[in-house]
Predict the structure.
Amino acid sequence: MIHIPHSRPCFGADYQHAVRHVLQSNIVAQGSETQRLEHDIQQHLGCTSVLAVDSGTSALMLAIRGLGQHKTGLRVGIPTYACASLLFAVKAAGAEPVFIDCNAQLGLEEKQTQAIAQTLDMLVLVHPFGGVEPLAAGSFPCFVIEDIAQSVGATLDGKAVGSFGDVTIGSLYATKPWGGAYGGFIASNNADLLQLCADMSDPDQADINNVYAGHHQLSDIHASLARQRIQDATQTMAQRQLWAEKYDALIAQTSATPIQNPSNTTSNDFRYIVRNQQPVDTIIPKLQALNIMATRPIQRPLHHSNSSITCAQADHAWQHCISLPLLSDMSPIEFQHLQQGIQQCFPS
Ligand SMILES: Cc1ncc(COP(=O)(O)O)c(C=O)c1O
């Protein structure tokens, strides 16, 4: 029976070889593979320092703690239409989350962002769902943390995302474009900041007067998987791009509209998101009954954690946007099944 998962990372023989190599070295915790991974990421992003850590959530929490050192009452702006990890990272850093509404492209609403930024210590600019947050090219009166967890390989004005902010964080979780199994990274040209984050990532080395330290190192096993995924990332992105063009033609026959990328950007096509006139809870169950594991792009808008805040555009997107499975290794039979499912479940 055909079953189309929302994500399907592929780990071939090269991955098994890479993990076996680490096991045979007898060094499975942090070692040379992690250092090589940091070097690989540094080359891709063109920055001077990278620290590999255990998750993207830890990466963001550590970056906030590092940038906010010596300050209390930190206010950190985050998009409300985003992954729940952002909210948990801000809270884990002891900071106050400030929610910012989205626009029709699921990026940040520009005027609101500029106004709120005046009151912030840090602003997290998430490049959303494989696309680009154009505000990354702007300037802000607070620190900017770029989040490229979903969008590594995308570009803004010809420059790689992750090369605009004061610091960049990313995820190496299995389903992400650079995913090994678990992991994350912090990248910056500020070596002192990364040293602070490294100190907080290793309680055995940290000064016992530190406000915070936890075990956030990445293991060499996870690093070896992520290195392999980074090597394959350009090819898998190209495969997804070909499928995305076919999806465009399919969706054009329905009343749904794909989320468009701004013209000065290129996407990595990590996710294929469409906006429907009908609420998604009428469409997703129908697709899932056909074993097409479409889902909402986010679990829930983050401002729902505070009942006194409204963000109308994020609420609309939550009710009306669907993420369709876009698998780099989709077979023609799977595509045909998806095509039939879309024709059947989306109003024309
Ligand atoms: C945009 C974004 N940032 C950060 C994270 C957190 O990454 P991790 O799952 O590695 O903790 C995620 C996870 O889904 C994400 O989508």
